[in-house]
Design goal:
The complex is a heterodimer of chains A (313) and B (176). By secondary structure, chain A is of the alpha+beta class. Chain A contains 9 helices and 7 strands; from the N terminus they run αααααααααβββββββ. Chain A has a 7-stranded antiparallel beta sheet, covered by helices on one side. Chain A is elongated and about 80 Å long. The termini of chain A are far apart. With 176 residues, chain B is mainly alpha-helical. The termini of chain B are far apart. Chain B is globular. At the A-B interface, helix 4, helix 5 and helix 6 of A face helix 2, helix 3, helix 4, helix 5 and helix 6 of B.
């Protein structure tokens, strides 16, 4: 090897990062070339110098101060241990998830289309889209938004299961035509607006906006765009992201929820799985930029728990 | 039965720390604090700042331990925190507050070694942050290029390039 070939390799050679064969070739050259040997020596000296300059102990035992700082941070120790030491708390969070889902589903229900008369069908099917829905304009040949959640009443509210689901917001209608805005009933502050987007028949593209009620926190229901169904027979009913008012923001509540319907081979609903995200402090996921100040304000997404709400044979 | 804290692997100590075992966290601290302090000292060139930063690194690590997924080693994760804490500290320094490297810790050491250490820290302080970080992680911590890339979340080529340029710039600032 020539010097000009060896020089760019010397750093990696000194660091032991060259492959065996190349390292041997460089070693042979260095043993025969005084100039390259001097460069290797200089690199080695640099390492020794930096190591010696930074070889120093802190002035005192830092550990007590670190633990004191941890204790001064409100809730830091309890946050660290909470999930692992207090399973009850975690279980309560799961219970809260179920309650919030029930509340959310019962609070927000779709606009029902006006009853269609024998004189109306053509006008309804060709009626323009509501101005407010332009961003999510619906092709006229698409079915009604309620069909986006094709869950029969009987499935969501079987006679022998909870009544809450009988008033579920995802209760479908059999009307395949999207109602015109003129025919839709007046909006109330607890009624949700369903805005399908093209390709709406894929549940992951569904977007559902909910208006805030007077008492409940703002609820925005969004299907997660990249969240796959959990199997060929699964349908994502919706993802519930809760945005709490400021005064409630420090509550150890849930950040988001999602509901997945699992349908068995016979077509019956096997279960409705509720998944939820715990607040940041309880998140186990590590971050892209650990330790940075910015990270302190960032929310995590991701689900950390689940609960089966309904199970029917 | 748990192994004694001193002989346990980092992963086990992390697990025990999560469960509230303060002794396990103390062992993790004892095992790594000198490296973290050296990194902070090399990055910040000032002892008090380095001690503050070291504390902050472990406070941050402690508070985020529940979120450590074990995708990388604890050492890598801890040094990633340390680099970020140092970079944040450097950015907080205004131009008016630019600090000179302070005297090495042992005040009795007034020999030429002490002066040399000071000059070396000053030479490090003149390098860009990324050059400084790769040199310290390589020379002091003995990290491989791959580990440095993992800590700094950069490519292997970046590590090689920064090491080459950083060493050259260091030699321009400090004659060995």
């Amino acid at each position: 090897m020539k010097c000009e070939e060896v020089h760019p390799l010397l750093d990696a050679y000194v660091d032991g990062e060259l492959q065996q064969e190349l390292g041997d070739a460089v070693s042979l050259h260095v043993s025969q070339c005084a100039d390259c040997a001097a460069k290797v020596l200089a690199l080695a000296k640099l390492g020794v110098a930096v190591r010696s300059a930074l070889d120093e102990e802190p002035s005192g035992d830092l550990f007590p101060q670190i633990m004191a700082r941890c204790r001064r941070k409100p809730g830091l120790l309890s946050r660290l241990y909470s999930v692992w030491r207090y399973p009850t708390r975690t279980a309560l969070a799961g219970l809260t998830a179920v309650c919030v889902v029930l509340a959310a589903v019962s609070l927000y229900h779709p606009q029902r289309p006006a009853p269609r008369t024998a004189m109306q069908p053509q006008q309804e099917s060709s009626s323009p889209v509501d101005e407010g829905d332009q961003a999510f304009a619906v092709p006229q040949d698409l079915p009604a938004p309620d069909v986006l959640f094709p869950v029969p009443d009987a499935e969501l509210a079987p006679a022998d299961t909870s009544d809450e689901w009988s008033t579920a917001s995802t209760k479908p209608t059999s009307d395949p035509v999207r109602p015109s805005s003129a025919a839709a009933p007046p909006k109330t502050n607890k009624r949700k607006t369903v805005r399908p987007v093209p390709g709406h028949n894929q549940p992951t593209n569904v977007r559902v906006d909910a208006q805030p009620s007077d008492t409940a926190p703002v609820l925005v229901v969004l299907a997660e765009p990249d969240m796959p169904a959990e199997g060929p027979d699964s349908t994502i009913l919706g993802s519930f992201r809760l945005e709490f008012p400021d005064e409630l923001s420090d509550q150890p509540s849930l950040r988001s929820l999602s509901v997945v319907k699992r349908v068995g081979p016979s077509g019956d609903v096997e279960s409705l799985d509720i998944s939820f995200t715990l607040p940041d402090a309880l998140q186990p996921a590590s971050d892209e930029r650990e330790g940075s100040d910015d990270e302190q304000h960032r929310s995590d997404s991701g689900r950390t728990g689940s609960a089966v709400l309904v199970s029917t044979p | 039965m748990h192994a004694t804290a001193a002989s346990a692997h980092d992963a086990e100590l992390v697990s025990r720390s999560r469960a509230g075992d303060e002794d396990a966290f103390r062992t993790l601290f004892s095992r790594h604090y000198r490296y973290v302090y050296a990194l902070c000292l090399g990055m910040l060139s000032h002892r008090e700042d380095a001690e503050d930063a070291t504390q902050e690194v472990f406070v941050n690590a402690f508070s985020r331990l529940a979120r450590f997924r074990g995708d990388c080693s604890f050492r890598t994760w801890l040094h990633r925190i340390a680099v970020n804490v140092c970079i944040d500290a450097l950015r907080r320094r205004t131009k008016q507050q630019t600090l000179q490297a302070d005297m090495p810790g042992d005040v009795r050491d007034t020999t030429g070694d002490c002066i040399a250490k000071l000059q070396i820290r000053e030479a490090l302080a003149r390098l860009p942050e990324n050059y400084r970080a790769v040199i310290i992680l390589r020379e002091v911590h003995g990290f491989s290029y791959a580990e440095i890339a993992e800590v700094l979340r950069c490519s292997l080529d970046d590590v090689k390039n920064w090491l080459y340029r950083g060493r050259k710039a260091f030699r321009d600032c400090y004659e060995l």
